[in-house]
User: Which sequence fits this backbone?
């Protein structure tokens, strides 16, 4: 029912092409008590659909200072902001009939029904704000270069012993941290310290995710002149060393959380998705791939087998669909 063709097309295409993101994110609801899983799924899926939609909208929008308000939708889910369509769509030529507003209110209403929502909200808001700011800065790189994102990310990166682009990479994918914290809000035993630990562990997981995505997409990014996080490393050995270190830190941090085994499998799932990509087997990515695999073995081994089978089945299905 979105009235403007551009935004209607973006919304439909994102759901069609990236529904896997929402499906995977929803699996975190298995951390919640059974009677609350429907509510957790509703909150998580609305947030993920919003994230993917905003990514598409930002790519098609004429990004200006006013256009930065697009990403205010993330803090709006968990904070005290009063969001209106007029506020969210400053800088854009048309609105989407309230579609983004509806995603915000849907996810927010579901989140607030969870027993530990108030406890988790500060950590979740921090992750959501980080995601919004990182996404905004990343989309501005094409127009303003890397200096703004470098200035934004360096203080926090230094505190966490990350490079500035590693923190920016983790921030851009921190929607996953928001999902994990929404799931934690379903457990009334969650404490503020636990929520903060989840936020930190998933920042490392998000950093690994974005860097591996950049690794397997390096040739495409180079061909399309796109932004590439992996290109900031001096050479392949430096990239391999850092990604292996981040993988080890992510595995250690998630393993120490309540339900640590479940969270560790999420790390392995993130890594397995990208490491099973054909691009991960191409030079020069193979050096980095091998180092990350070594850090996450044996947890990663069954995940790679599952994703290998999934990718093979997907190729067959795509071939049948195309009539090949």
Assistant:
């Amino acid at each position: 029912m979105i009235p403007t063709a551009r935004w209607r097309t973006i919304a439909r295409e994102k759901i069609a092409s990236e529904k896997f993101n929402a499906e995977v994110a929803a699996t975190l609801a298995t951390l919640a008590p059974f009677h609350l899983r429907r509510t957790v799924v509703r909150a998580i899926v609305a947030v993920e659909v919003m994230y993917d939609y905003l990514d598409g909208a930002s790519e098609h929008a004429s990004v200006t200072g006013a256009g930065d308000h697009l990403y205010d939708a993330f803090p709006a889910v968990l904070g005290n902001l009063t969001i209106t369509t007029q506020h969210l769509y400053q800088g854009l030529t048309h609105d989407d009939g309230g579609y983004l507003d509806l995603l915000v209110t849907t996810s927010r209403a579901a989140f607030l029904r969870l027993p530990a929502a108030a406890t988790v909200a500060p950590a979740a808001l921090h992750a959501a704000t980080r995601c919004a700011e990182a996404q905004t800065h990343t989309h501005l790189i094409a127009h303003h270069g890397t200096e703004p994102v470098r200035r934004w990310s360096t203080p926090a990166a230094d505190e966490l012993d990350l490079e500035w682009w590693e923190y920016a990479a983790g921030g851009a994918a921190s929607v996953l941290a928001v999902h994990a914290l929404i799931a934690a809000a379903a457990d009334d035993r969650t404490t503020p310290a636990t929520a903060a630990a989840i936020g930190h562990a998933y920042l490392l997981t998000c950093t690994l995710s974005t860097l591996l995505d950049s690794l397997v997409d390096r040739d495409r990014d180079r061909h399309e002149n796109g932004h590439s996080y992996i290109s900031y490393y001096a050479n392949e050995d430096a990239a391999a060393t850092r990604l292996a270190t981040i993988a080890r830190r992510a595995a250690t941090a998630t393993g120490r959380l309540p339900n640590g085994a479940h969270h560790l499998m999420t790390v392995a799932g993130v890594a397995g998705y990208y490491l099973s990509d054909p691009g991960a087997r191409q030079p020069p990515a193979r050096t980095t791939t091998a180092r990350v695999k070594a850090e996450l073995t044996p947890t990663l081994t069954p995940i790679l087998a599952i994703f290998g089978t999934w990718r093979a089945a997907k190729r067959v299905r795509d071939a049948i669909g195309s009539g090949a």
The two ends are 35 Å apart (CA to CA).
